[in-house]
Amino acid sequence: MTDKTISSAVIIGAGIFGVSTGVQLARRGIRVTILNDGPAANGASGRSLSWLNSARMRSEPYHRLRMAGIDRYRTLFAQYPDTDWLRFDGGLTWDADDAGNEIAAAYRHEVSLGYDARHLAAEEVAGITPGLDARAITPQGAIFNPGEGWVDLPVLIDLLLQEFSALGGVLVTDQGAARVVVEGGRAIGAQTANGDRFEADAVVVATGSAVPKMVAESGETIGDGTPIALLVQTKPVAHPLRAVLNTPRVAVRPAPGGTFSLDADWAADEGVTLRPDGSYDIDETVVEALLAEAAKVMEGNPKLEIAAVGVGGKPIPGDGEPVIGALKAIPGYYVAFSHSGATLGLILGELLAYEVATGREHPMLATFRPERFG
Prior knowledge:
Blueprint: E1 8-12, H1 16-27, E2 31-35, E3 51-52, H2 60-79, E4 86-87, E5 91-93, H3 103-112, E6 118-120, H4 122-125, E7 142-145, E8 149-151, H5 153-166, E9 170-172, E10 178-183, E11 186-192, E12 197-199, E13 202-205, H6 211-216, E14 228-234, E15 244-246, E16 251-255, E17 259-263, H7 265-271, E18 272-274, E19 280-282, H8 284-297, E20 306-313, E21 323-326, E22 333-337, H9 341-358
Parallel strand pairs: 1-2, 1-13, 2-9, 5-15, 13-22
Antiparallel strand pairs: 3-8, 4-8, 5-7, 6-7, 10-11, 11-12, 14-17, 14-20, 15-16, 16-17, 18-19, 21-22
Helix pairs in contact: 1-5, 1-9, 2-9
């Protein structure tokens, strides 16, 4: 049973937020078209570290939302327990050996929330989670969070799109970028670069780092803190590491087929230059340095080789918190813009679809409304 107030929706963006929302709307019997400026997952979802977590410190509503997000992945994992694209093998993190080290404070905070955490000395780590070079762990120790995991978003998006298609959803990827069509003060659909219009009762903009700019074209404001991100995918290597690592110099995440995904803010800052035409120059020496940093924290310091490099904006709202829901100044216009796209991917699609379909606000999204930037 459902109480839908609309019969059709168009979604701009075929990353995890757009596709997840599209599937949820289609399950409610709503006709959905997803428009994307290329293949699905060609934006931030295709180059995300995709660490499933609610570690460290953030607002209480954001923590609850992330925990609900992880819950949905656990439900999915129960359906695919032997998969190599969704795993719950834990996360391990440590800070630099300096005055900014917050491991003890982070551990106390996580325990206060009931977030599963263990504060380990370097010599204890090998007995808890394999694949680490314990020499890399600083004297303050590390936090192991056994309930954390990771997902390969392109594989998940493909799986969701199969269901989306079976439910009658339509994916359009060959007509260039799309824009929202606003007439009479209301969003009535979208128009692609080729000029085709797709009219609908509701429009959802889920274009990652492009959301603030698209909203600005309609006279609305969303704070934007998007940096450039760099993700390096390695070639397969036989290695026992299973947990996601977040260390002072590199984040390392296992990936399907014995590969690893790597990123670090410093590598993006030092290794990526934006060209005037909007494309990027990548400094290969910085990429090699990132591979070396990853090898240092992995048992046996394996030789890592580059398979692929992804560069682009990492969607982060100006205040760091998700921006989800209706643009109240423009009826029919909804947005999904947030960091932690992997952790939130399934739950945000579910809650946003609830709002689009019913016209009611979900209480879990109360503090994440777009109008807070007005």
